[in-house]
Structure to design on (262 residues):
DNA sequence: AACGGGTGCAACCGCTGGTAG
DNA sequence: GCTACCAGCGGTTGCACCCGT
């Protein structure tokens, strides 16, 4: 048996919202709030819309203090960093970017950031990347039988963050993101993450969404949290071998010196 | 001017997890 | 413990707009 639909599909309007509908929704929520029940809201507000549609419209467009327009370099950096850490958990990423919605960030990632990466790789001045074999040669984290893509990327990003300021910046970040993307493809993309393990690492296993030690939910979580020991281990291992793949990453990053990204 | 492909964004869909009864 | 309901989430789609030919 299937579940009952959330609304009468035949009697709800779909498609773009009109200014009148926007006004009705805004005024209703301003006067009465959502009442904790989005399903009942459209009827009360005199809207022929599905409750889910109202919720989405409010959260993504009508809600106060929303930012529209270009993402800043800093926002780019946060998105890349968090994507590297937690994957496509857009709501979690959005929580770190005040005024941005998960839908915004998802669209931005899918339409712009991802393409920036691809463009960089295709660009003539792109630097040689490690091969997939080199990914496989990455040492596994402590206690793991094999290195996961996430391990590889985490170590790469950590190397980047630990490197001198001259080698940081968008180009290097995006270069790493692309490597990450390639690793995902190599591993079949789908079941790369042990999500529960990720959550446990990311949130300290407490089940909450606030970073341990953080007094504010808007505080940016330290990237290395949860991976700290694994990453240190990886760095230690990589640094001990001059022919290790970590030096490939250093070469890539070093090659980005004085490269401006737009 | 007309057309077609590309792009960006708003909105929808289907699923999951939480929870009240 | 079970069921039904709801909010929230991520993936996907539809469409308006832009731009090159």
């Amino acid at each position: 048996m299937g579940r009952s639909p959330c609304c009468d599909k035949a009697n709800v309007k779909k498609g773009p919202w009109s200014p009148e509908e926007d006004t009705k929704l805004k005024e209703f929520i301003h006067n009465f709030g959502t009442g904790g029940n989005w399903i009942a809201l459209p009827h009360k507000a005199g809207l022929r819309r599905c409750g889910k549609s109202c919720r989405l419209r409010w959260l993504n467009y009508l809600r106060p203090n929303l930012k529209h327009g270009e993402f800043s370099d800093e926002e780019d950096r946060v998105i890349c960093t968090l994507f590297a850490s937690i994957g496509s958990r857009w709501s979690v990423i959005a929580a770190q970017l005040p005024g941005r919605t998960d839908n915004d960030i998802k669209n931005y990632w899918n339409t712009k950031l991802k393409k920036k990466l691809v463009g960089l790789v295709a660009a003539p001045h792109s630097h040689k990347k490690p091969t997939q074999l080199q990914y496989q040669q990455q040492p596994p984290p402590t206690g793991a039988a094999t290195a996961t893509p996430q391990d590889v990327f985490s170590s790469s990003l950590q190397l980047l963050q630990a490197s001198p300021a001259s080698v940081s910046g968008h180009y290097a970040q995006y270069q790493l993101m692309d490597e990450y993307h390639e690793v995902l493809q190599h591993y079949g993309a789908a079941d790369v993450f042990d999500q529960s393990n990720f959550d446990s690492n990311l949130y300290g296993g407490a089940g909450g969404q606030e970073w341990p030690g953080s007094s504010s939910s808007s505080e940016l979580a330290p990237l290395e949290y949860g991976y700290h020991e694994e990453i240190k281990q990886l760095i230690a291992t990589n640094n001990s071998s001059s022919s290790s793949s970590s030096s490939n990453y250093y070469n890539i990053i070093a090659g980005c010196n004085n490269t401006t990204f737009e």
Observations:
- Residues 102-122 of chain A form the longest helix (21 residues).
